[in-house]
Amino acid sequence: MVRQRVQRVIVTRVDASGSRRRPDRVIVEEPLTIQLDGAVVTTTMRTPGHDFELAAGFCFTEGLLGGATVAGVRYCADGPAIDSEFNVVTVETGGRAPVPTPRLGTTSSSCGLCGRDQLDALTERLVPYLPDAVAIDPGVLAAVPQSVLDGQGLFGETGAVHAAAAFDADGQILLTREDVGRHNAVDKVVGAQLLDGRLPAVTGAIAGLFVSGRASIEMVQKAWAAGFRALVAVSAPTSLAVEAARRANLTLVGFVRQDGFNVY
User: Fold this and answer.
1) How would you class 14 by CB atoms within 10 Å of its CB: exposed for 0-12, middle for 13-18, buried for 19 or more?
2) pLDDT tens string 235-254
3) Closest by alpha carbon to 110, among 26, 191, 183?
4) Catalytic sites, residue numbers
5) End-to-end C-alpha distance for the chain, whole angstroms
6) 3-12 as b/e: b if 16+ CB within 10 A
């Protein structure tokens, strides 16, 4: 089923010539409850679309699968899926994944709280998946944001979504996803790779992960878990993101523009 992702509204436009009413478009934001083998894991505010990828990617990057293979993903509810407005998705492993501990509250479209304990836990959990750092031509890195922007249809319509994309060493954009939450956009990219059997990314042609916002520790965590060898952001990283990237031997690039960037 194709879900509505953009909604038309009437706005009052005010500028130097005065005010006038006109149509505009806003991005749709709805809750998605994610379950793992029928147990509720979390509820996140997301842009409808690629919901199966989002659910699978979230369970993978948060370490909830415990190495179990995803056997299926489906919409679910006590009755027909339409009764829950297609806002409940369950990831199924046949009971092979550990029983999850639900997150308290609702995950917003911004990143969650992180700290030193989380960084230590990440290091312990993700060390077996450490990728090798990769050298990417500076010209390739500088061109990635514009290449991703060219494929951001929802951003072009509304200006209200983040983007994440997987790219190869030549700068070719392999996959782009958009969402009101930057972590959701990343999970959709990771989930797509997972469901296609292309993880960890380090074993294939994928060189890096692009994010349209800042590079938080959560972005590093998700890139690290999926085996990306580089994380490229148009904004700045946080201190914990820099430390996590160093532990992961992950190339972390920020403030990417056509005329330059910072490598942390």
Assistant:
1) exposed
2) 999 999 999 999 888 999 99
3) 183
4) 111
5) 42
6) eebeeeeeee
Q: List all residues 6 or more positions away from 259 whose beta carbon is below 8 Å from its beta carbon.
A: 142
Amino acid identity at 13: R
User: 95-105 as b/e, with b when 16 or more CB fall inside 10 Å?
Assistant: eebeebeeeee
Q: Which domains does the chain have, with CATH numbers?
A: 138-263 (3.40.140.10)
Please provide the DSSP assignment of 230-253 as one string: EEEESSPBPHHHHHHHHHHT-EEE
| CA proximity to 212, closest of 159, 140, 162, 165 | 162
Asked if 232 contacts 199 with a C-beta cutoff of 8 angstroms, the reply is no
By the 8 A CB rule, do 22 and 32 touch?
no
CA distance 257 to 168: 18
Count CA atoms within 13 Å of residue 264 on its CB side.
27
Cα–Cα distance for residue pair 177/165, rounded to 1 Å? 6
Residue-wise pLDDT tens digits, 15-74? 999 999 999 999 999 999 999 999 999 999 999 999 999 999 999 999 999 999 999 999
